[in-house]
């Protein structure tokens, strides 16, 4: 398996969705190719960094407006059920 | 209380249950919108549109996907509408970028996450992605949607989702490794027979 082939299969390998036979070839390639091993590690670290990030807080005034608008819409929707 | 139970109560007319669902997910919806659009005003619009749509379409929600996935789908569609109204989607290259800067990272993601500069760096790298690549990465890798759910949320085929995801991952890897990689461990890609 060449490095080019590895790139094409990278998603499946990182996501654990790769065919077991191809997985074995992939890992055999990595055992003899340090750059490819490091790239795979980097990808995993990249995903982890983003996945574990905290979501943004809503600006306080917007949060109040949002909930107020939703309550209003809820009352309208529930007092005028669609026919 | 699980989402499924809250949805049931909300569908039966319980506003408090619906508000609890909003409180649970408003930050995630806002974050997705903000990262998609890089603009607080647009992010607020998308967030509000998403939850208003949820109010209006709640009776139709059948629970085939999770309530959270459903919200993500609505938010993605709303965000994509705004993106389309902007200058028009640029032509995206679907070439797979080859890794150039390959090095082990100086620290683990957990330690990097504790450092003040990391947040700004990762948001900047994300902002440099093409919008559709960014959205696919956000939905799949950050929000944990499946490839199928991501395809439905974005209107792409599953094959296109996979290609865009690969490009996004490789581009982000490149940028982050330039920032966090130890230059002393830099390796050069070599040709194989």
Structural class of chain B: mainly alpha
Arithmetic mean pLDDT of chain A: 89
| Run of helices and strands of chain A | HHHH
The percent range for helix content of chain A is over 70%
Largest sheet report of chain B: none
How many helices of chain A does DSSP assign?
A: 4
**CATH architectural arrangement of the largest domain in chain B:** Orthogonal Bundle
Instruction: Specify Rg of chain A, calculated over alpha carbons.
Output: 24 Å
CATH-level-4 superfamily name of the largest domain in chain B: RNA polymerase sigma factor, region 2, helix turn helix motif
Please give the most extensive interface between any two protein chains, plus how many residues each contributes.
A-B, 41 and 54 residues
Q: Could you give the order of the helices and strands of chain B?
A: HHHHHHHHH
Let me know the average pLDDT of chain B. Answer: 92
What does this structure look like?
- The complex is a heterodimer of chains A (83) and B (193).
- Helices cover 75% and strands 0% of the residues of chain A.
- Chain A has 83 residues and is mainly α.
- The model of chain A has no long low-confidence stretch (mean pLDDT 89).
- Chain B has 193 residues and is mainly alpha-helical.
- Chain B has 2 domains: 3-85, Rna Polymerase Sigma Factor, Chain: A (Orthogonal Bundle); 109-185, Winged helix-like DNA-binding domain superfamily/Winged helix DNA-binding domain (Arc Repressor Mutant, subunit A, Orthogonal Bundle), CATH 1.10.10.
- Chain B has helices spanning 3-11, 15-37, 40-57, 67-85, 109-113, 116-127, 131-142, 147-154, 158-180.
- In chain B, helix 1 (3-11) crosses helix 2, helix 3 packs across helix 4 and helix 7 runs antiparallel to helix 8 (147-154).
- The longest helix of chain B has 23 residues, at 15-37.
- Chain B is elongated.
- The model of chain B has no long low-confidence stretch (mean pLDDT 92).
- The chains are: A mainly alpha (83), B mainly alpha (193).
């Amino acid at each position: 398996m060449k490095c080019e082939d590895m790139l094409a299969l990278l998603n499946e390998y990182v996501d654990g969705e790769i065919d077991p036979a191809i997985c074995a070839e992939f890992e055999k390639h990595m055992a003899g190719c340090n750059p490819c091993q490091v790239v795979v590690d980097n990808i995993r670290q990249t995903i982890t960094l983003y996945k574990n990030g905290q979501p943004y807080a809503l600006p306080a005034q917007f949060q109040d407006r949002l909930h107020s608008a939703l309550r209003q819409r809820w009352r309208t929707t529930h007092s005028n059920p669609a026919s | 209380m699980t989402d499924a139970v809250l949805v049931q109560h909300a569908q039966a007319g319980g506003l408090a249950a619906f508000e609890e669902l909003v409180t649970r997910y408003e930050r995630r919806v806002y974050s997705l919108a903000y990262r998609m659009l890089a603009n607080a005003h647009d992010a607020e619009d998308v967030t509000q549109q998403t939850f208003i749509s949820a109010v209006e379409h709640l009776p139709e929600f059948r629970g085939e996907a999770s309530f959270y996935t459903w919200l993500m789908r609505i938010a993605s569609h709303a965000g994509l509408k705004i993106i389309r109204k902007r200058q028009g989607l640029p032509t995206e290259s679907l070439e797979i970028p080859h890794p150039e800067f390959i090095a082990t990272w100086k620290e683990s993601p957990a330690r990097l996450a504790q450092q003040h500069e990391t947040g700004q760096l990762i948001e900047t790298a994300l902002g440099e992605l093409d919008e559709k690549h960014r959205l696919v990465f956000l939905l799949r890798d950050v929000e944990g949607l499946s490839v199928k759910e991501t395809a439905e949320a974005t209107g792409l085929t599953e094959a296109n989702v996979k290609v865009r995801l690969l490009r996004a991952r490789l581009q982000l890897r490149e940028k982050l490794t330039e920032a966090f990689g130890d230059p002393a461990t830099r390796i050069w890609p070599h040709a194989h027979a």
